[in-house]
């Protein structure tokens, strides 16, 4: 049986089978975690996306599940297709395109008001319950922090302000800067450039299995924050640690 949990995870983690053969990764594996001086986060280990889908199900009762699955598959599929083709469009724009295309495909009447409401819900996401305490512990230990996300900088900063966590981050790195979405190597390179550190000194916290694989391919010490309890991807790349929340990240990067 397909549950809402499965639909959420598989939508967020993209469509299986899309290849990035044009985006090779040849970096060495990461250094020992005792050398970690900074952490780069994907958006979703920090921000909880579930309210978006609660709104979706409220607007389209009985159709929300199938629309959610297709919308998120197209949303992340479009990022990869556009990067592969060199046809960049920012994540907020792609999210709207994917929603409209999904509604059209399913024959669902999507009003401009409904579309705006769903897109705007991406700008006021809550943080997961363990986030603020974990971030404060990382900062207290002297680690530098950044977002490294497919989201636009405006999306990231609006959500950071909404949750009063702006002061905890040194950098807000959107793939808009390099016009290539993760898992392109150019996207992960932003962390090295911002922190001015070797990749082995920067831990990466991923939400999706494909992002954990991408970060591992790039050479980051990688923690998969597997909040949805998903099965591992079959991409010949394993994170250094997998945990259901940020406790695993703290154990990985902080000295005992």
How does this model look, in words?
- The structure is a single chain.
- The protein is α/β, with parallel strands linked by helices and 256 residues long.
- It folds into two domains: 5-9 and 27-48 and 127-253, Rossmann fold, CATH 3.40.50.1000; 50-123, Putative phosphatase, domain 2 (DNA polymerase, domain 1), CATH 1.10.150.240.
- Helix content is 45%, strand content 10%.
- It has ten helices and six strands.
- It has helices at residues 4-12, 50-59, 64-85, 91-106, 112-120, 131-140, 153-162, 185-195, 209-218, 247-253, and strands at 38-41, 144-149, 171-174, 202-206, 222-225, 241-243.
- The chain has a six-stranded parallel β-sheet, sandwiched between helices.
- Mean pLDDT is 89; it is low at 1-11 and 13-33.
Which secondary structure elements does this structure contain, and how are they paired or packed?
Blueprint: H1 4-12, E1 38-41, H2 50-59, H3 64-85, H4 91-106, H5 112-120, H6 131-140, E2 144-149, H7 153-162, E3 171-174, H8 185-195, E4 202-206, H9 209-218, E5 222-225, E6 241-243, H10 247-253
Parallel strand pairs: 1-2, 1-4, 2-3, 4-5, 5-6
């Amino acid at each position: 049986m397909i549950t809402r949990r499965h639909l959420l995870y598989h939508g967020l983690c993209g469509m299986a089978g899309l290849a990035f053969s044009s985006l090779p990764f040849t970096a060495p594996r990461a250094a020992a975690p005792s050398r970690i001086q900074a952490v780069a986060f994907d958006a979703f280990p920090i921000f909880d996306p579930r309210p978006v889908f609660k709104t979706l199900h409220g607007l389209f009762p009985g159709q929300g599940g199938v629309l959610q699955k297709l919308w998120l598959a197209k949303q992340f599929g479009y990022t990869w297709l556009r990067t592969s083709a060199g046809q960049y469009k920012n994540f907020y724009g792609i999210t709207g395109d994917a929603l409209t295309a999904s509604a059209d495909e399913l024959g669902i009447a999507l009003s401009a008001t409904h579309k705006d409401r769903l897109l705007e819900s991406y700008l006021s996401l809550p943080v997961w319950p363990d986030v603020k305490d974990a971030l404060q512990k990382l900062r207290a230990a002297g680690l530098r922090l950044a977002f490294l996300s497919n989201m636009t900088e405006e999306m990231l900063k609006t959500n950071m302000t909404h949750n009063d966590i702006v002061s905890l981050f040194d950098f807000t790195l959107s793939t808009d800067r390099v016009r290539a979405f993760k898992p392109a190597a150019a996207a992960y390179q932003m962390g090295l450039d911002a922190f001015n550190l070797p990749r082995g000194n920067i831990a990466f916290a991923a939400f999706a299995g494909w992002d954990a694989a991408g970060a591992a391919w790039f050479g980051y010490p990688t923690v998969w924050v597997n909040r949805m309890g998903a099965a591992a991807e079959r991409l010949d790349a394993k994170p250094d640690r997998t945990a259901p929340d940020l406790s695993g990240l703290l154990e990985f990067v902080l000295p005992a």
